[in-house]
Each structure stands twice: as C-alpha cells, then as structure tokens.
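> example.struct
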C-alpha cells in the first residue's frame, strides 16, 4: 500500500505567511476537523487488508507537530498488527535527482524479517535550469504564462539569483541550483510559483511540473489555479520511483 494522507494540516509552507495566533493559521495538525486524522484511517486500512509492505508519505511536520506523539501511536498500532516499521525517514528530493528542494517524510513497514534499505543520495544535485531552459513555447500543454505589469517586470529583472521580491513575495530561482519548493496554495487560490531564473516572469504550470519531474505528456486539467494545486500537492515522480526501487530491493 502506498498512501499520503493530506498534508496541509501539518505543512509549514502552507502557513509561513500567517502568525500562529491568527485566524488564518492552519497548521493545526491532528485537530483539523476534516483532514487531521486521515492518517489513522489509512492505518486502519493497512491493518484490515494486511499488505506485505506499506508506505506512508507526508510532510516532515507530521512528525514534528506534536513532538511525534500521534505518529508514534500510529506506528504502535501497525507494530501491534505484526509490522516491522522503519524509523520515519525525511528525504530532500534534491538529493535524488529532482531539480527542486522538497522535503518529504516516509514511513515504511513490512510483515517480513527483511530490513528496509533507504535509497542512496546522488553525489551531484541538478540545477533547475536543466529543465526550465529550452522548453518549447508551442505545442505543449499547461504552459500559459502570467502577464505582469511593467513595474513588476522591472523589479524581477533587477533581482539577483536566489533573491526575493518583497512586494510580490516571489523568489528568482538560481539556475545552477535546485529550485525552492513548489507549493500548492490554498483552496481559494493557486500556488505562488517562483520566478524564472532568466525571464522576468513567474513560472507556468508546465515549468513547475518539470521541477517536480512530471513528463511533458502528463496533462493537468481544470482552472489554472487548480493545476498549480495539483502540481504542488504531488510527490516528485522521480523521488517516488527511487522509494519504489528501494522497497522492491528490500522486500521482494
């Protein structure tokens, strides 16, 4: 079984704009009325159907939100059901061939005596320019770009690599380094895409998808804001593949 209970109640990125005491702060963890306890629903399915191996994916905040108390409770339920559970593993996608810094937490367990061997990190990280440059302007889906005012374009042109435009709260990417995390945004708006490293504009959905390592023939549908949400909510396919390879080698 592979599953990722919704991560917004545990996400730092989703709440970094708000004060913890404010009405807009949503990093409420397991107390979230709709999504906060879906982890235990997933655990219940694992216990009921007893797959040989399971994987739980989430943001690192799942481990940190309450000092790990409820994650530990979930692990204990799985161990009582006969699973050997590997210690929670936090990986940065940039260490595994993804041109983007993106931390994700993985919990792997199995009903075997084998030990899970985590994927080996790459020696060299991939700069974001490798997937953002030379992108065809025609004949590719999800590549509509946003129109900016002349003032915004002027500010973006003068911004240094890796620096933030304080007015627009967007970052110009450094072409030689993995990008900053692609985020999903909330229910009322799409994600804030970063600034292209060489062109004074924000990224398109397709460019964000490339940072996530989606192939160009993978089409996102719905309003543009929802397309950004779909991209930003996803686990990078390349990182998912690396985890799948490690599970295959460890248990099968």
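> example.seq
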């Amino acid at each position: 079984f592979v599953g990722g209970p919704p991560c917004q109640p545990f996400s730092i990125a989703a709440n970094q704009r708000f004060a913890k005491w404010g009405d807009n702060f949503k990093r409420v963890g397991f107390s979230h009325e709709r999504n906060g306890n879906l982890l235990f629903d997933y655990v219940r399915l694992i216990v009921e159907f007893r797959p040989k191996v399971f994987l739980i994916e989430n943001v690192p905040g799942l481990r940190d939100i309450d000092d790990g108390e409820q994650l530990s409770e979930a692990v204990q339920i799985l161990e009582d059901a006969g699973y050997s559970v590997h210690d929670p593993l936090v990986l940065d996608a940039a260490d595994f061939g993804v041109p983007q810094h993106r931390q994700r937490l993985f919990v792997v367990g199995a009903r075997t005596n084998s030990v899970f061997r985590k994927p080996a990190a790459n020696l060299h990280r991939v700069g974001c320019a490798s997937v953002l440059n030379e992108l065809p302007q025609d004949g590719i889906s999800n590549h509509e770009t946003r129109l900016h005012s002349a003032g915004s374009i002027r500010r973006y042109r003068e911004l240094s690599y890796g620096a933030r435009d304080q007015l627009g709260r967007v970052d110009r990417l450094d072409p030689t380094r993995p990008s900053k995390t692609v985020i999903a945004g909330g229910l009322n708006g799409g994600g804030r895409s970063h600034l292209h490293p060489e062109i004074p504009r924000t990224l398109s959905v397709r460019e964000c998808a490339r940072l996530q390592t989606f192939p160009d023939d993978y089409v996102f549908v719905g309003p543009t804001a929802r397309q950004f949400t779909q991209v930003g909510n996803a686990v990078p396919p390349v990182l998912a593949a690396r985890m799948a390879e490690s599970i295959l080698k460890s248990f099968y």
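> remarks
Confidence is low (pLDDT under 50) at residues 14-21, 23-27.
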